[in-house]
Amino acid sequence: MSSVYSKRTAQEIIKYYGITKPDEIEIEAIALDRKVFVNDIFIKGSVARLQVKRQHGIISVNTNIKEPGKRRFAIAHELGHFELHKEKSKSNICSDKDFLNWYREKIDENEANAFAAELLMPESIFREYCPRDLPSFTLIGNLAEIFKTSLTATAFRYVELGHFPCALIASVDGRIKWMSCSSDFPSRILQIDTPVHKLSVAGSCLLGESAPSLPELVEKSYWLESGNENEDLKLHEHAVNLTTYNTILSLLFFN
Asked: In terms of Cα–Cα distance, which of 161, 167, 69 is closest to 120?
């Protein structure tokens, strides 16, 4: 199984229900129609869990989740486990880390994330709503409101499907934790676990400064490996501080 199969499975669901607009993606109604009941309970140390019995499932979502977008993604993620992995596992518990590691340690979690992203932000629909303006978290925040998804999940999707080459970097505890780049982003990002440059926008946030409302011009060496081409292009960074998760997201693009 792969993320390609995961996306195809979600696309088949979108087609089956005749969904053509974001407000038609009623995730709990879709889950219930597919014999999966959703309830909210306190789950210590976890975001959500799935229990499978025969061909039915129960998704439990932690009542501590306050953001509607995160709750919707948690439901879609667990529904992904039901659609993709129910024959393999009858019980599944997911933490915040499972929702953030889109392309790393756990294959099943990556597949469930790919399924959830395609179900909540279908490629054919999402592209239509992506403006051709310069990238920014303001733009991504608007998309998150339209699709009722979390800022992080929407940023991932925007980098993957938007019309402008860009990169998304997450910094945790002052170091690069993970990244995602458009297929046509023209440069290589510094390696995972590299310390965040103190003069970058993310570095300023680490020092307690507020993230600027607009993208700022930064030196390429703050984020990119040496020997990059595109000498005439300038690197811009827009950042947002997710204090609840001790994470700073940086959006990079050339202009």
From this structure: 69
* CA separation for the pair 37, 158 (Å, rounded): 30
Residue labelled with tokens 């054919």: 124
Instruction: Please state, in angstroms and rounded to a whole number, the distance separating the CA atoms of residues 32 and 149.
Output: 20
Task: Sketch the domain layout of the chain as residue ranges.
Answer: 3-124, 125-254
pTM for the predicted model, two decimal places: 0.91
pLDDT tens digits for 120-165? Answer: 999 999 999 999 999 999 999 999 999 999 999 999 999 999 999 9
For domain 3-124, give the fold.
Arc Repressor Mutant, subunit A (1.10.10)
